[in-house]
Structure formats: C-alpha cells, structure tokens
Amino acid sequence: MSGKYLVTGGAGYVGSVVAQHLIEAGHEVTVLDNLSTGFREGVPAGATFIEGDIRDAGKWLDSSYDAVLHFAAFSQVGESVVKPEKYWDNNVGGTMALLAAMREAGVRKLVFSSTAATYGEPEQTPIVESAPTRPTSPYGASKLAVDHMITGEAAAHGLGAVSLRYFNVAGAYGAQGERHDPESHLIPLVLQVAQGRREAISVFGDDYPTPDGTCVRDYIHVADLAEAHLLAVEAATAGEHLICNLGNGNGFSVREVIETVRQVTGHPIPEVMAPRRGGDPAVLVASAATARERLGWNPSRADLAGIVADAWAFAQNKER
Ligand SMILES: NC(=O)c1ccc[n+]([C@@H]2O[C@H](COP(=O)([O-])OP(=O)(O)OC[C@H]3O[C@@H](n4cnc5c(N)ncnc54)[C@H](O)[C@@H]3O)[C@@H](O)[C@H]2O)c1
Ligand SMILES: O=c1ccn([C@@H]2O[C@H](COP(=O)(O)OP(=O)(O)O[C@H]3O[C@H](CO)[C@H](O)[C@H](O)[C@H]3O)[C@@H](O)[C@H]2O)c(=O)[nH]1
C-alpha cells in the first residue's frame, strides 16, 4: 500500500537515499530540510521539497501523513565534543518540537536515525541492543536522549516507533551519495586521496587492541540501510518503540579499508600516522539479529569492495 511520508533531513546523505527508495516504491514523499549540511540538488526528483527547520514542522504536518522518517540532525562526533550545546539544541530540542508537532497533527508513526555511538566503548562484540549505553561523545548522548524521549512518547501517547542504530554507513545509490562538507568519514576521505584532492590519508591511531592496531568498524551499504527503513515503517506498531542495530556483523580495520580503496581505484593511497581521535571506540561491530527477525531485513551488499566501488563511482561522477 502506498503511503505519504515526511522525510526530515532528506537533502542529506542517508535521507536522500531513503527518500529515493520510498519514491521508487510508489510512496508520496515530502522532504523537510533547512540545508544546514544538506544540498538542494540531493533531494530526489519526485519529492516535494520544503526548505525549513524541524522546529517548525507543525507548520506543514497534518493527519494526511502516515509517518515521519527523521534524519535531520548534526552528526559530527568530533564537533560535538567542542560544541555540545549545538548538538543538544538541534538533535534533542529539534526532535522534541518534531514529536510535539506529530502529536498535535495526529501522525502516528516514526522511524528515527539513531547510531552505534549510543553504546560507546562496548563490553562485548558484536553489539546487541540490550548492551549498556554509555556514549563517549555529546553526539552519541544526544541521540540516546532522543531514543529515551521516543520510548516515553510511545508508552504515553501510543506512537509507533522504530529507532535504527546505524553502524558505519557507506557507499552510494546512483546519483545519491556522501558529500559532507567538511568531510570527516573515512571512505570518502580515502577516495579524495585517490582523486588527487588530498595528498594522503591520516590514520588516527595504530595502537588500539585490534589485529593491526587500527580501529575496526562495521560498514553498511546505504542502499541496504534504506531498505531497512521501508521495512521499519511497516513494522512500526502503536505504543511500541523498537530499537534495531543495522550493520553487517563484519569488522574492517582502517588499514583494511585503505587497502580495499587501493584495489578498487588502482591508486597507491599514501598513509600518514596521526594521533588517536578523541571518542573513537576500538571496535564497533553490530549484531543485526533484531533487524533480521523483527523487520525481515536481509542486507545483500555486505562486500566491502562493492561498497567502496559504489562510493568511488559516485565520487567520480560528482567531480565531472
Ligand atoms: N552517516 C553515518 O554514518 C551515520 C551513522 C549513524 C547515524 N547517522 C544519522 O543519520 C542521519 C543522517 O546522517 P547523514 O550522514 O545523512 O547526515 P547529513 O548531514 O548528510 O544529513 C542531515 C540532514 O539534516 C538536515 N538538518 C539538520 N538539522 C536540521 C534541522 N534542524 N531542520 C531541518 N533539517 C536539518 C541537514 O541540512 C542535512 O541535509 C543523522 O541523524 C545522523 O546522526 C548517520
Ligand atoms: O581521516 C580519517 C578518518 C577516520 N579515520 C578512522 O576511521 C574510522 C571510521 O571513522 P568515520 O569517521 O568514518 O566513522 P565513525 O566510526 O567515527 O562514525 C560513524 O559511526 C559513529 C558510531 O560510532 C557515528 O554513528 C557516526 O555518525 C558515524 O559516522 C575511525 O576509527 C576513525 O578514527 C581515520 O583513521 N582517518
């Protein structure tokens, strides 16, 4: 059945890919984005675009919407350490206003972009949703606060909600890909080296307790992630707040990622050693068993070389 959805942050990386998937599945999509970190041209053709802030969502939301998919947020871990107030204001304050607008308008379903950063340094790998949540950055803390807020909203007011805790999102979907400015994520930065836009990639620490000393992450293709959102909208049940990790369950070190980029691009990719980056856990790998069981999610693009190849194709196109 087709639905009508508000996608906040749909001019950004993940939101634009999910909006594109919703449109391809025959749904009606409105993107609400203030373009603070997103790009107007990222909004998929076929979506209605509103340039506005989530704090003003009440101006546009009404009961004709079946659900809100909420991506709008600031998401730089490092920046959040030096400007925590910016993260509480936008991520927590903005979402409070959005939830109030949804309540007022009678919109009954929410899918929220949560993050592996809510867990902090894990005690056990792979990470399950019942693991302790001890975020190591204000970014992670702001997302955890929103998760708690949503739990209360579901219990008290009957919202049907799913929080998806993404691990490391990567890759591209046709014309939609990653373009943060400034870029801080590993794969697009290494691809900039391959393009000659950067001289070398800095490796942030090689003294972690991992096989090659560099941090290990679980990279998930943005199109697999998008499919989980469509399933989550279907699974959202009144009065329940479901939390699901999204990852492939495979960890790759920073050095393995760089080596994969060498293989995919044929570029030598010089590395320079740099100190550890504050707030980085050594290993973050997901158990996505809940998403598989509760959403029926079945990711099909786990191969790291394939993920990098899609990101590379997008980066090359963007520079043309
Ligand atoms: N990219 C990742 O690896 C990753 C991992 C875990 C979680 N997440 C979460 O997923 C979501 C999307 O991340 P992304 O990488 O696409 O980021 P992004 O910066 O590309 O997209 C965020 C979008 O939200 C918009 N926005 C921000 N504040 C807004 C506001 N107050 N009102 C309206 N629009 C606003 C921005 O303009 C931007 O278009 C975020 O919530 C992020 O925390 C991302
Ligand atoms: O120039 C760089 C950039 C990154 N890294 C390393 O590469 C790994 C991956 O870093 P990213 O910045 O690409 O991703 P993060 O793991 O820091 O962050 C991602 O996962 C987090 C959960 O911990 C949040 O959800 C966040 O939004 C999401 O981007 C980290 O060990 C980082 O230290 C480098 O060595 N050099």
From TrEMBL:
Instruction: Give the EC number.
Output: 5.1.3.2
Q: What class of enzyme is it?
A: isomerase
**Catalytic activity field:** UDP-alpha-D-glucose = UDP-alpha-D-galactose
Superkingdom of this protein's organism: Bacteria
* Pathway the protein takes part in: Carbohydrate metabolism; galactose metabolism
Give GO MF terms, alphabetically.
Answer: UDP-glucose 4-epimerase activity
Task: Name the needed cofactors.
Answer: NAD(+)
* InterPro entries linked: Epimerase_deHydtase, NAD(P)-bd_dom_sf, UDP_G4E
Residue limits of the NAD-dependent epimerase/dehydratase domain? 6-244
Keywords tagged on the record: Carbohydrate metabolism, Isomerase, NAD
Q: Quaternary structure per UniProt?
A: Homodimer.
Q: Which family does it belong to?
A: Belongs to the NAD(P)-dependent epimerase/dehydratase family.
The name of this protein is UDP-glucose 4-epimerase
Organism in which the protein naturally occurs: Streptomyces mirabilis
